[in-house]
Amino acid sequence: MFSVNDISPLTFAATAGILVVSYAYSSLAKGSRGNHPPGPIGLPFFGPRLSSTPWKDFAEWGKNYGDILYIKSYGKGIMVLNSHPAAVDLLDRRGSNYSDRQTFIMNEYLTRGLSFGMVNVGDMWRKMRRASHECLSKTGVTRYYHVQEREALIFTQNLLCDSSKWNQEVARTAASGMLTAVYDLPPRESINDPLVSKFNDFHEILISAVTPGLIEYSPWLQYLPSFLTPWKTKAQHRFLELSSFFGELMQDHGEQESSAFAPFLIREKDKLGLSDTESAWLAATVVAGFGSNNEALLWLFLALIAHPEKQQKCQEELDAIVGHSRMPTFEDRDNLPYIRATARELLRWKAISPLGTEHVSKEDDWYQGYFIPKGTMCLANLWLMNRNREVYGDDVEEFNPDRFIDSEGKLKPSISDTKDGTLCFNPGPSVNSAQHYNISLFCHFRSMCPARHLSNDIIFIFIARLLWAVKLSAVVDKTTGCPIIPDLTATIVDGVKTQVTLIPRVISDELLTSHMQTPASF
Ligand code: HEM
C-alpha cells in the first residue's frame, strides 16, 4: 500500500512545487485578487471606507488606480468604471453580461421584483421597457406637452403667491405632473394631498428596499422562523397593501380613452402581456420616478440664484424670442438654445443619479487583462464622466450653460443627438474623438433611463416658464446686507436648503390666469 513515507524528499519537493504552480495558475484563471482591476483594499471584510458621496471617493481613488477600480466591500466585489469608454465597452457592448441588477432581499419581499428600476434583464424587463417605450419615447412624450406646460404655469403662479416654501412647491409639482401623465388626474393642489403623500411614501419605500441593511449582509436571517422575522411578514403585507392600492388606481383612472400611461396599459393589456398586478406596479413605479425630477428642479433654483448672469442670459433669450405677451411653449424649444443649454448643464453639473443603477455580471469576464468574476457589481461613475476636463474644459465644477453653445449661438449637439454616441464635445488636438463623449446623464447603456425625454421636457419647460415670469434672487442677510448665496458644494444628501426672493417680470397676474384656461386633461 502506498504511504507518504515511501516518497523521497526530492519527489515530495517536486510534487509540492507542481501543486503550488497549478494552484497559482488556477487562482489566476479564477481571478485572484492580483488579477482583479486595482483598487484600495481597506479593512478585512469591510473593505475601504466609503463616504456619503462614494462617487467622489471613486474619483479620488481613480487618480492612483486608473479608470477601472475594483474593491471588496462587506465581502462583495464591486467594479467602478470611471471612464465613459470603459462603461460603453462593458455595460453596452457586452451589455448582455452586465445587465443584471443587484438583488436586494428586502426589495424582493417588498416589491416581488415588480419595481421597474430594479428588474433584471429578462422577460419581465423586456415587457416593461416595451410598454414604457410607447409613452416615454421621443415621440410618445409629446402627448404630455400640455400637462408639463400647465404644471409649469401652476408652479410659477403658486410661487408668485408664496415663495417661502418653494422646495415644497417643487415636490408638489414633480409628483402632480407624473400623476396626470400616468393616471390622467387633475393637478394636485398641495404637497399634503393624500395621493402625493402616498407616492412620497412609496418613493421612500423603494429607496429603503434597495438600501443595504443587516439582512443583505446576512441573508440566512430570512430563513429563521416567522416569530423571529416580523419584518418579513410586514414587508409581505406592505406588498399586498400597495398592490391593491395601485390596482384600484388603475381601475378608477385607467379605463378612460385618454392617452395617459395607465389607460394605455389597460387598453393594450393583451399585446403587452402584463398581468393586472404587473401593469399596476409598472404605472406606480413610473410615477415614483418623480423623485429624480424633483431633485433636478431643486438644484435649478440653487444654480439660478447663485448665477444671476446666466439667469439674465436666459431671460434675454426669452424676451427676444417669446416676448411678454404670451408664455413660452414647447413650440419655442428649437428657438431657445440657451434655455436648453441651461437644462443640459443643470444635469451635468449635479448628476441626479451619480452612479447610475447597479449592474451585475452574469458570467466571469476578462477586460483589459483584468478578471471580472461572475456576480461583480458594476457601477458607472456618471458624476465623474460629466467632469471630464478634456471634454468640458477646466471649469467643470462651475455651472456654465455657455459650454454647450457654439460660436454662432447654437446648441452644440449632444450625445443623445448622435446615434453611435462617439461624438466629441470639445476635441483638443490631442483628443481622439472616437474615445470621448460629451454627456452621460441618463446612461447610454441597455438599461438607460426610459424617462430621459420626459425629464428633459419637464426641465426645459420649467426653466422657460419660470424665468419668463420671475427673476430669482438670493435673500439678503439683514445684518450684513449681503445676499445669502447657497452652498453649491452641498449634495442632495445634505439637503437643498436656501431662501429665495422672486421679482415678478410679467405684466400682470391676469396674464397668468388667462393661461389657466388651457385644457385640464388629455
Ligand atoms: C432628471 C431626471 C432623471 C435622471 C438624471 C435619470 C437617470 C437615470 C439613470 C442614470 C439610470 C440608470 C441607467 C443604468 O445605469 O443602466 C436611470 C434608470 C431608470 N430611470 Fe431614470 N432618471 C431620471 C428621471 C426618471 C423618471 C422621471 C423616471 C420615471 C418615469 C425614471 C425611471 C427610470 C427607470 C425605470 C430606470 C431603470 C431602467 C431599466 O432598468 O431598464 N427616471 N435613470
TrEMBL record:
Its cofactor is heme. The keyword Glycoprotein applies. Heme binds at C449. Pfam families: p450. One of its GO terms (molecular function) is iron ion binding. Pathway: Secondary metabolite biosynthesis. InterPro entries: Cyt_P450 (IPR001128), Cyt_P450_E_grp-I (IPR002401), Cyt_P450_sf (IPR036396), Cytochrome_P450_fung (IPR050364). Keywords: Glycoprotein, Heme, Iron, Membrane, Metal-binding, Monooxygenase, Oxidoreductase, Transmembrane, Transmembrane helix. It is a single-pass membrane protein. Belongs to the cytochrome P450 family. This is Cytochrome P450. It comes from Psilocybe cubensis (Psychedelic mushroom).
